C-alpha cells in the first residue's frame, strides 16, 4: 500500500504524470482516489483478481476491528474507478457480493498465457517419463490447493493395475509446484502427503531443485509411483506438461487458474473441479473434464485418461485444447480486450461529486483512533494469557 502511494507521489511530481490518458491499476485500489484528485486527466481502469477483504483473516474480534476500515476503504476506492475489470465471471460474482455498494458493474477480462513461446517451441518435447504414462498436478504445496484429492483419486484409479507394474513404476503421479521451506504450512502439507502415500502403500520419492533434472532418471525415481517435485523448475514443468496423460487441477473455487491453460496450450487434457474459474476455461468433454471434487468422481476420469482413452480421442481433445487457448486466452486477445476497456474508460464522464478526498481524510483519523485501541486490547489479552 505504502509503495503504491510512493509511486503515485513520484508520478504526481513528474512531468509525465499528467500526460497519461489511462491508468491501469492492478488489484490494490488505495491510489484510485488520489489519481482522481491529483491527476484528473487520466481515467482509471481497475483490474481486480479477488477482493483483498476476502483474503484477509477476520476470525478474531481484534482482527475484525482492525480490518473494518480497510475493508470499507477497499470498497470505496475501488468504486471510484472509471472501469472495473476482473479475471473471471466467478470473480465478478464474488466482487458483486463483497462490494454491494459499488455501482460500476465489473467486466470480465481473462488473463493470457504465452502462446508465442508455444508456437516457437518444438512440438515434441522429450520428458523424463514415457509419454502419457503419468498424471500431473501443478500447485503450491498448501492445504487449500487440495492436492490430497489427486493423490487419493489416483490411488483408487490404479487399484486394478498388476502389482509388478506398480512396483516397476510403470504409471506415476507427479506432484509438482511451489514450495517454501520457511513456511510451516508448506512443510507440514508436504509431510502430510507423504504420510498418505505411505498409508496407501504408494512408493514415493522427493526430488529437490538442488538434485537437478538428472535425478529424475535415477532408478529410485523411475520405480516410484508418486514423485514430489517441490519448487519445480519451469523448464522441467513444461516437459512434464507436454507429456502427461492428464493434468489434475484440484483447488475449489479458484479465482481463475492459469495452470489449466498452460496444460491445454501443449495439448494436455485437464481434470478440474466444477467450481470457479476452470468452469470458464475447460470445455467439459472437449478439452478436459469438470467434476465435483470427490475421489469417487475423479478416480474414473483419471483411469480413463491414463488407461482407456482411444488415441483418436486424445488427438482430437489435444487439438481442441490448443485451439481454445489460442482463440480465447492469447496475448493478442487480452491486448484487444485491454484496448477496448481503456477506450471505454477514456469515454467515461465522471460525477464531479464522487471521489471527495475529505472522506479519505476522515477515514485516516478513524484508523489512527482504532490502531491504538487494537494494540491496547491485544496487550491486555497477552497479559491475561500469562496470569
Automatic annotation (TrEMBL):
Catalytic activity, as annotated: a beta-D-Man-(1->4)-beta-D-GlcNAc-(1->4)-alpha-D-GlcNAc-diphospho-di-trans,poly-cis-dolichol + GDP-alpha-D-mannose = an alpha-D-Man-(1->3)-beta-D-Man-(1->4)-beta-D-GlcNAc-(1->4)-alpha-D-GlcNAc-diphospho-di-trans,poly-cis-dolichol + GDP + H(+); an alpha-D-Man-(1->3)-beta-D-Man-(1->4)-beta-D-GlcNAc-(1->4)-alpha-D-GlcNAc-diphospho-di-trans,poly-cis-dolichol + GDP-alpha-D-mannose = an alpha-D-Man-(1->3)-[alpha-D-Man-(1->6)]-beta-D-Man-(1->4)-beta-D-GlcNAc-(1->4)-alpha-D-GlcNAc-diphospho-di-trans,poly-cis-dolichol + GDP + H(+)
Gene3D superfamilies: Glycogen Phosphorylase B
Signal peptide: none
Domain named Glycosyl transferase family: residues: 127-323
One Pfam family of this chain: Glycos_transf_1
GO cellular component: endoplasmic reticulum membrane
Keywords recorded for this protein, A-Z: Endoplasmic reticulum, Glycosyltransferase, Membrane, Transferase, Transmembrane, Transmembrane helix
Family in the record: Belongs to the glycosyltransferase group 1 family.
Function: Mannosylates Man(2)GlcNAc(2)-dolichol diphosphate and Man(1)GlcNAc(2)-dolichol diphosphate to form Man(3)GlcNAc(2)-dolichol diphosphate.
Name used for this protein in its record: Alpha-1,3/1,6-mannosyltransferase ALG2
Organism from which the protein derives: Geotrichum candidum (Oospora lactis)
